[in-house]
Amino acid sequence: MQDQPLIKSTRHDAVLHLALNRPAKRNAVNDALVQALDAQFAAVPPDVRAIVLTGEGEQFCAGLDLSELTDRNVFEGILHSRMWHSALDRIQFSPVPVVAVLHGAVVGGGLEIAASAHVRVAERSAFYAFPEGQRGIFVGGGGSVRVPRLIGAARVADMMLTGRVLDADEGQAMGLSTYLVDPGQGLAKGLALAQKIAGNAPMSNYAVIQALPRIAELPPAEGLFMEALVAAIAQGEPAAKERLRAFLDKRAGKVQKGQ
């Protein structure tokens, strides 16, 4: 019997749905799964305009598969961490926006994966933790960089030092998720958001996910100059010109409350 793929892939028009597929292991991440993620995001089909990332089974991802950790020496540990960095950089700097749908455990490496997405939808079953402090280890998949940018370094330190577990409401209030929905509604919400994102001009989407995080890291003067460059590039695209003409000709809807 052929093994199931570590990443399940499904198309919904211009949206690609990718699902972590180790449900029997609570989608714990081993080396093969990291490499499968890297390969998927390194070869996004050119007609895909947005990606939804989920976890099969009852959990999004319960973190690192610790069974692979004990035999590594220090140098091997550095290389392993850098492998994670490479794979999660591919998600953060994907050619198209990524919507992560979270349910159940979003723990350790699972939270690191979620933090690399651009939009996060959490079901009320979701819970978040960084148990590394209780395991005698330290985050190694970008968690010390990405998660503090969402909730602050002090909160991440609290999670790591005390083993604190955040529920879905706490995660939403702190900024770990962007949308909070009832159990079983996450995928539908994620796909709806991805379809809406896919309808944007591709260059505009690309500028948001590629330029915005870099601009945010720059000193104000340099950030403003880069913003001017990116704005000029985006508005020079034919798709942008057509959309602006449609708005001026009243062929496009105005922004409405509750959209």
Report on the architecture of this protein:
- The structure is a single chain.
- The protein has eleven helices and nine strands.
- The chain has helices at 31-42, 74-92, 109-115, 132-135, 143-151, 153-162, 168-174, 186-198, 202-217, 220-235, 238-248; strands at residues 7-12, 15-20, 50-55, 98-102, 105-107, 119-123, 127-129, 166-167, 179-181.
- Strands 1-2-3-4-6-9 form a six-stranded mixed β-sheet, with helices on both faces. The chain has a three-stranded mixed β-sheet with strand order 5-7-8.
- Helix 1 (31-42) runs parallel beside helix 2 (74-92).
- The relative contact order is 0.12.
The major beta sheet can be summarized as: 6 strands, mixed
Measured as a percent range, the helix fraction is 40-55%
Helix count?
A: 11
CATH class of the largest domain: Alpha Beta
By helix and strand content, what is the structural category? alpha/beta
Number of strands: 9
**Assembly context of the chains:** single chain
Strand order of the largest sheet: 1-2-3-4-6-9
Shape label: globular
Q: Give the CATH architecture of the largest domain.
A: Alpha-Beta Complex
Proportion of residues in β-strands: 15-25%
Helix/strand order, N-terminal first = EEHEHEEHEEHHHEHEHHHH
The Rg value, from CA coordinates, equals 19 Å
What's the CATH superfamily of the largest domain, by name? Answer: 2-enoyl-CoA Hydratase, Chain A, domain 1
Write the layout of secondary structure elements.
Blueprint: E1 7-12, E2 15-20, H1 31-42, E3 50-55, H2 74-92, E4 98-102, E5 105-107, H3 109-115, E6 119-123, E7 127-129, H4 132-135, H5 143-151, H6 153-162, E8 166-167, H7 168-174, E9 179-181, H8 186-198, H9 202-217, H10 220-235, H11 238-248
Helix pairs in contact: 1-2, 3-5, 5-6, 9-10
